[in-house]
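ok new one. same drill as before - structure tokens go in, u give me an amino acid for every spot. 209 of them this time. try not to just spam alanines like last time pls lmao
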């Protein structure tokens, strides 16, 4: 073995940090029970660090439970804009609360400012992430993003569209890989004006009509 070589992969080094509000030891103990339940040996070399890895993964995937999404809905001082704003193709990853299986996809957020009040573009992505990184169902995720933006910024209207692929549907159950679930939440002016809603959807889909 050459000098400096380590058989330990980078992700096999246990993190010293313990996320606030997360009991990593309890999660790891549960993972060990799962391994035993499926007939595996948690002490064999390939699985010894698996419980800790899984615990840290779930702490990361549920980090939004320990964040206040309203903190991301703060208007930029001094900047004014009265036309539609869209941030599309925000990559999201969440965990289905029914099977604790991941679902991944894209979130599109559109809003029409009221009184010129706008958000920093990264705030919309952070808002989506905060709600995605929780135990979720896609329908609720979509509505929570729309409601928080609508209530916090008080724009003329909000539209949120989420497209996601659920592993609880693609690798188990009906086993339909590639199937997308699409959900939308429409608030305020987008609900009242079909033309504005159609314009937003056309822009989200990449068309100019």
């Amino acid at each position: 073995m050459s000098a400096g070589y380590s058989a330990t992969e980078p992700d096999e080094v246990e993190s010293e940090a313990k996320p606030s509000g997360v009991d990593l030891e309890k999660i790891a103990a549960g993972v060990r029970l799962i391994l035993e339940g499926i007939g595996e040996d948690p002490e064999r070399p390939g699985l010894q660090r698996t419980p800790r890895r899984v615990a840290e993964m779930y702490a990361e995937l549920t980090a939004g439970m320990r964040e206040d999404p309203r903190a991301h809905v703060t208007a930029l001082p001094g900047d004014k804009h009265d036309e539609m704003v869209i941030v599309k193709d925000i990559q999201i990853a969440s965990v289905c609360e029914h099977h604790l299986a991941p679902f991944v996809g894209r979130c599109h957020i559109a809003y029409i400012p009221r009184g010129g009040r706008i958000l920093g573009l990264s705030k919309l992505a952070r808002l989506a992430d905060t709600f995605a990184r929780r135990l979720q169902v896609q329908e609720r995720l979509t509505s929570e993003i729309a409601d928080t933006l609508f209530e916090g910024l008080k724009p003329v209207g909000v539209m949120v569209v989420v497209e996601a692929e659920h592993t609880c549907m693609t690798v188990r159950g009906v086993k339909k890989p590639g199937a997308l679930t699409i959900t939308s939440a429409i608030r305020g002016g987008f609900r009242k004006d079909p033309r504005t809603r159609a314009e937003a959807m056309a822009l989200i889909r990449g068309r100019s009509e």
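The first helix runs from residue 24 to 37. and btw The two ends are 64 Å apart (CA to CA).
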